[in-house]
Design a protein that fits this description.
- The chain has 195 residues and is mostly helical.
- It has one domain: Four Helix Bundle (Hemerythrin (Met), subunit A) (Up-down Bundle).
- It starts with a helix and ends with a helix.
Amino acid sequence: MTNTVAAAESDSRMVHMPGDGAMWVMVIGDLIIFGAYFIIFMVHRAMRPGVFLASQQHLNITIGVVNTLVLLASSWFIARSVQCTRAGEGDRALRLTYLGGLCGVLFIGIKAYEWSAKIAEGYALSGNEFFMFYYMLTGVHVFHVGLGLVILGVVVRELRNPRRRRVSMVESGATYWHMVDLLWVVIFALVYVMR
């Protein structure tokens, strides 16, 4: 009898992969593609270190830091939303998801401001190789933030309906959102910080 109880308790505490398997395939695919972008960036940087270093000096690292903090805050809100969903606190999870999404919108707004300032200063996509990579990497990332906001919209729809609130849907949205945040941390390190 004791073995049966222990086995039942063990089964109820089994660790599972959060979210849906299809979301993990998508996330791993995106990580592979971005990994290739990062390698190509590093190869070009090694070939023309002077151009990359001189151009990098024209980026505003404070804006990069603020955007990093905004996305890290969004990740925290989304992680807490998953915890609240698992605990059956759907209304709190909904508020936290809104806050995470708001941070995503703020990130896009800050990035648009930064791009417009760089373009006004004469640092356009065609300016040099560094700025081509800068706009390409940050642009593809902003696209992913936008897609992440759509996915968070699906999570919000899920959380607004008390009869649904599937934990796996919230976990899938969080999985994608955390990938977007992780990619930004690498982009920030490569483009803004690494000398």
